[in-house]
Amino acid sequence: MEQVYPFGLPLKKVEQLDKSPKKVFVLGVYASAVHAKWIDVDGKVKVNALAVASEPYIFWKGDGADEIISKIKIPLKLGKLVPADERFNGPSGNVLDDVFLKPLGYNRKDAWLCDLLPYSRINPNQQKAIEKQYNPLMKEFDLPECTIPPFLASELNNAARVEEIVEELEQSQADTIILLGDLPIKHFLSHFSKFKKLSDFGTTQQEYGNQHPIIIKGKTYQVIPLVHPRQAGNLGRSIHSWSTLHKRWAIDRKGEDIEVGLPKIRVSKMPQKCPVCGSNKIAVYLRGMPAYSEKLQQDLNEGKIILGGCCVSDDDPFCACVDCKTDFYNPTNNLNHETSHFRDRDY
Fold this sequence. Notes:
Blueprint: E1 24-31, E2 33-39, E3 45-54, H1 65-70, E4 80-83, H2 91-101, E5 111-120, H3 124-134, H4 138-141, H5 159-172, E6 176-180, H6 182-187, E7 212-216, E8 219-226, H7 229-232, H8 240-254, E9 265-266, E10 282-287, H9 294-301, E11 305-309, E12 319-321, E13 327-329, H10 337-344
């Protein structure tokens, strides 16, 4: 039975298109999707980022989102669909290029890209949006039921899929394998080695990102275990220690600081909830050399402020999400009233 997204586009298998010999084989978790912002007839946003189509190619970079979404027809009374914020369309693809392949001296033409699961899945936030905004309208407007299943890690425990990935690996002719996060290690590499998760390779700067010779079906590959792009790019909830390890690894190999190819999020005031991960833990940056006080320590402990250091540019973030580390910038380069009360406090 064909599985479909909200408004009816079918779920598609997402896999490597260019099957010429490659230098490196990259294994991720599951395919992403094209996300649309759903705006009602009154101009109000019903859903900020609704998955409406399979990504057009593996580790998609967000290009062509407007063309894909423009072909989706919805009843006039339900408003319109427009491309969601760039952070929802192609972020993992951009992060892969910027802070995984480039530091190793590779580009897309060098890489064979693969996922444990070559299909998109619905995460809990998507499911909630569909249940709240889409499902109640299905009967009245004769909308198709969204039948994309939720992501379950147990679905990755699939011996037949492991064999398919080995076939792709052999077809790629690559000698190096990059594994993105815990799940490719657990559900693929563990079939051929003692390793079960990323931390098994070590958690220090000296241990992270090293090559490990591992024999798969009689051939020795150089395996480089790295974090998931979500961690490297602070996409949604992430663990700061792993994000920091990866950034340091990338800087060491490039010899320069790195900039992930994602747009800055500009807001006129401090958001009540993070638009990326949904957390309500938003902290304001405090810059300069504040004098120590019990109040300062309390605000630091409670995640109300972040020490921003003494170096100030003409476009620094004024607040950030404590959970996913997403920075928020002013529409202009001037600090607004949202941050002034922190600057004026007697710390």
